[in-house]
Fold this sequence. Notes:
There is one protein chain. The chain is an all-alpha fold. The protein has one domain (2-375): MFS general substrate transporter like domains (Growth Hormone, Chain: A, Up-down Bundle), CATH 1.20.1250. It is built from 16 helices and no strands.
Amino acid sequence: MLILLTFGLATVKLGRYLLPPLLPEVIETLSISSVEAGIALSTITLLYGLFQYPGGRYADRLTRKTVLVAAFAFILIGYFVLSQSFHYYVLLLGAAVIGIGMGLYGPTDRAAISDLFTRRRGLAFGINVTGSEIGGGLAAGLSVIALMYFGWRAAFLVAFVIAAVLVTLIHRWGRGPYRIERVPLGLRDTLRRLAAGEYLPIVLVYVLFSFIGNGVIGFLPTLLQVDQGFSSTQASLVYASVFVVGLLSKPVAGQLSDRIRRLTVAIGSFVMGIAGLAILIAATSIPIAVLGTVGYAIGHRSFPPVMQAYLMDRFPDETMAGDLGAIRTVYIAIGSLGPTYVGIVATKLSYTAAFTGFIVCFAIGIGLLAFQWIRHRPA
């Protein structure tokens, strides 16, 4: 089941990761600006964030299988709409529908993993979230083939077929029955409980993590092509390296956090992220760009399994999906502004200037993690 959920996550994330390497072509064919492109990317992430809490709440009250299949229904619709996008507003619609499906899937997937693993939870999350890397690597390769032979819309038709296969497998092999009934959200009580649990510093760090990740992933290929003069194929290969590195670093970081303090691992990941991003910004050749991207990816992609295990260790079993969904709603929704920020700064200054701002975000995150580390230091 862990493997099925991992490939399900890869399929859900595929559409989100397809847009960035296709973005220069999308901008040209739809005659839109960098700001409009950034808004489309932010739309996916904003809806992804807003539907985290409902997804988690439904998963707690209904069944995990019910919500997982419902999430894939939205993903299928979104991929089909994007494959038919000949106008900017159709593109936005497809992005929005995909965001809803991703939001429903996220906390439900994590809760299902927590049901299966109580010991070695960090490693289990580390394996599961490699689904993002699998989806990203597939997106990078699929985008190259689509742009060379078929056009960018064809990539989303392929994504539609892959999603149809995965939802069929989840339907057949997923645990539990289907259950549909009215579920009260109870958001106020959940937020009150989380506020009392002293989660605020972690939420703020997650906001920074999401803001950085959405901005970098959304415009990394464009940075490499526009500001640094690389070809679209070279930019796609560098973009793919983020996911290749994450595929390896996430399980390692998760397993490491089972052995030493999770906050210690999280601080180290942000330090590595700063170093890698600085090298990437200064890159003048493909090897240097790859080196910087690898450093950034080790740092940024190692963070999720560590901190998700940290949070799940502290949430009550009966509300863990809803609690995680509430926190994810906050940080993903705010972090969704990352691509819009890059689009605005790039229009006024450059993509390089926008990426430099992410170094400041990493530094603030290190300070917040260090504060939490000191506050919860073992006696």
